[in-house]
Amino acid sequence: MTQREHWPEVARWEQYLVHREAAPATVERYLREARYFAAFASERCVGSAAEIGREDVLAYKAKLLEERAPSGANTAIAAVNGFLAFVGHSELKLRRLRVQPMPRCAVDGITKADYKKLVKAAHNKGDNVEALLVQTLCSTGIRVSELEAVTVDAVRVGYAVVRNKGRTRRVWFPERLCKLLTIHVFRQKIRSGPVFVTRSGNPIDRTRVWRILKELARLAGIEVRRVFPHALRHLFATTFQRVHRDLESLSVLLGHARLETTRLYLAEDEAERRRQVSCLGFV
Description:
2 domains, mainly alpha, DNA polymerase, domain 1, hpI Integrase, Chain A, globular, single chain, 283 residues
């Protein structure tokens, strides 16, 4: 008997999440965590969601703390809390772990010079489309999951309308990018729909974008682990704030619901923090 058959509430929760228009990646992640929790509870002889007790959820939290990093445990807790609320057990929801935000720069740190090397590497291999893909990601701050919104119509008006996590925003294209995208659309004879597509005409997906960036990183001589789609979005954010000093506008452009999320993008890396305190002259 599969887990879904054993706990039909999980299947109903999936329908609920889809009905609420949760992002596909969110649905997949939340279902995976709910199934892990259901499997754990079943091993404790819990026959259905209605039988879940406080001891069960606390034991599951202890298991998460043993097996996962705090951020991963919090992801699971958020999913399980949503499931508990759905099945009428809001009183059993778990407290998330307090985790001090780590500077994203320490992980995502690619520089503008690195970005230019990636674009040059694409041109050197004779792939102007890959170069344009990198330029689009970095000059707009768009998420890789939102690339499908970069359509022929969007190029004509100069911005893409993106709907993500229940919010709608405009992703503006720099004038130079619009010209490059227009040339690309003309040369590729794309008359409608997304401008970044596979040979079969399907929108380019996240996996393909990752592979492209990793290959370009190797060709450019950049440490491969530092190059991925979010690193380009991060570079857009830090560069925008350095030039304009406008956190609220940046938050809108990135599609963040809270300014605190945007502030995390702008945290200095650890080396810079050490340099700052070293300059105080107390020792």
